From TrEMBL:
Subcellular location: Cell inner membrane
GO cellular component: plasma membrane
Name of this chain's protein: Aromatic amino acid permease
Membrane topology listed for this record: Multi-pass membrane protein
Sorted UniProt keywords: Cell inner membrane, Cell membrane, Membrane, Transmembrane, Transmembrane helix, Transport
UniProt keyword annotation of Protease present: no
Transmembrane segments: 36-54, 60-77, 110-130, 150-167, 179-199, 219-243, 264-284, 311-336, 357-375, 381-405, 417-435
GO BP annotation list: amino acid transmembrane transport
Pfam families: Trp_Tyr_perm
Domain of life: Bacteria
Coiled-coil ranges from the UniProt annotation: none
Length: 439
């Protein structure tokens, strides 16, 4: 019997060794790790960062310093929490929706889909406004032409973008992917080009926004949490990222490998974005940043209009337009897929089989009318982020994973960590900031 037991143990050891040989050594850095670190890096830096300096700098030096301290931990721990929630799921290949369905049931999945759609679509609407304002500002300030009627300009832009996707979505997605790294390079180029324009007006603890709103420093810091959460959000990418690591390194090594890759990615992201934020704000004054907020422009468009630099004047608005266009198209594709699924499933529950052409027509009509109206109405972009986009992203990125870790048995090993408390506090404060911004 002892001999049989020894053989059994030997066989199990050999079998385990064979299994381990199937996966690369997770403690080492591999080529695919570099690929994923760069992919996350490219996804994490979107057009949202073009609005971060406006809120970050309008609170003065203290606001800038605290954003610099908070940006990395907020980005790292929130996306780590989402990765943890997904990687233990058997439905991770279906994305976050499949994970929610597995953990909490169909009703929770439906509610999540609605919240997820609203979070994406508010960003589509926001970028509709940003595109119209960027184009209008470029026509007036750089081309020195008369401002076109806003209703016509906004309609032409919305129809043009959607037409591009409808006639070649695959090509558009490839072009968008190709534009990621040139956009990041252009941010670095602009940041370096702005160095001669730096001044000392921001190196003060005085704050235009706190003085005008009477909120005080803590209130200002609180109210900029939504833009921090929004600017660094790339939650849609996390599912495919986690699944690839699980397939490559095995489920036991997934958590550590994800943490390793995310850490490298977020250090690069933090360095590029904060260099851009500091360089932009040091080139202006707190009053300039308040004017940019009132004019509803991205920081690049405002810099192009205010600075006497030929390079900035021409390059900045073009970079802004391309970046916002890329983000609009990316979020539109995501919103389209969610809307399509909801319409088809809604029809099936009522015993109706809605055709693909009908679904497409319904979605396009809805998108064109809503984007056109919002772009024409010109609501505050930062107001949309504060009141809607930031809090909804925080609910998905911060509060949902923490709730899952608390309630789902398979995630029990992640309970009781200080980072969880940090993520919960950031999530709650961001949601509360949105409620406060409405009053």
């Amino acid at each position: 019997m002892n001999g049989n037991t020894a053989k059994k143990i030997e066989f199990q050891a050999e079998n385990t060794a064979v299994k381990n040989e199937e996966y690369p050594d997770p403690t080492k850095w591999h080529k695919q790790d570099t690929t994923w670190a760069l992919s996350l890096f490219g996804t994490a830096i979107g057009a949202g960062v073009l609005f971060l300096p406006i809120n970050a700098g309008s609170g003065g030096l203290l606001s800038l310093l605290l954003i610099t301290l908070l940006a990395y931990p907020v980005m790292y721990y929130s996306h780590r929490a989402l990765a943890k929630m997904i990687y233990a799921s058997n439905s991770a290949e279906e994305g976050i929706t499949g994970t929610i369905r597995e953990y909490f049931g169909n009703k929770a999945s439906i509610i999540f889909n609605i919240v997820y759609f609203v979070s994406i679509y508010t960003i589509v609407l926001m970028y509709s406004v940003a595109l119209t304002n960027t184009a209008s500002s470029f026509i007036v300030h750089q081309l020195h032409m008369q401002e076109p009627p806003r209703a016509i300009l906004s309609l032409v832009l919305v129809l043009g973008l959607i037409a591009i996707l409808n006639f070649g979505q695959d090509i558009t997605v490839k072009i968008m992917s190709m534009l990621v790294y040139p956009f990041i390079a252009s941010l670095l180029f602009i940041s370096i080009s702005l160095i001669p324009q730096w001044n000392t007006s921001m190196l003060s603890f005085s704050s235009v926004s706190t003085a005008s709103a009477g909120t005080g420093y803590l209130g200002t810091i609180w109210m900029i949490l939504p833009i921090i959460v929004f600017s660094f959000n790339h939650s849609p990418m996390i599912s495919s990222f986690v699944m690839k690591q699980r397939a490559t390194y095995g489920i036991e090594a997934t958590d550590a490998k994800c943490a390793q890759i995310q850490k490298v990615c977020y250090i690069m992201t933090f360095a590029v974005v904060m260099f851009f934020v500091w360089s932009s704000t040091l080139s202006l004054t707190p009053n300039d940043l308040m004017m940019a907020k009132e004019q509803n422009l991205s920081i690049l468009s405002y810099l192009a209009n205010e600075l006497n630099s030929p390079v900035i004047t021409i390059a900045a608005p073009i970079i802004a337009f391309v970046a916002i266009t890329k983000s609009f198209l990316g979020h539109y594709i995501g919103a389209y897929e969610v809307m399509r699924d909801m319409i088809i499933k809604s029809g099936k529950t009522r015993g109706k089989d809605i055709g693909e052409k009908t679904v497409k027509t319904m979605i396009l009509t809805f998108v064109v009318l809503t984007c056109w109206y919002v772009a024409y109405a010109n609501p505050s972009i930062l107001g949309i982020i504060d009141a809607l986009s930031g809090p909804l992203v925080a609910a998905i990125l911060c509060l949902l994973p923490m709730y899952a870790i608390r309630k789902v048995p398979v995630l029990a090993k992640y309970r009781g960590k200080m980072s969880n408390v940090f993520v919960i506090i950031i999530g709650i404060l961001t949601v509360l900031a949105s409620i406060k911004s409405l009053f």
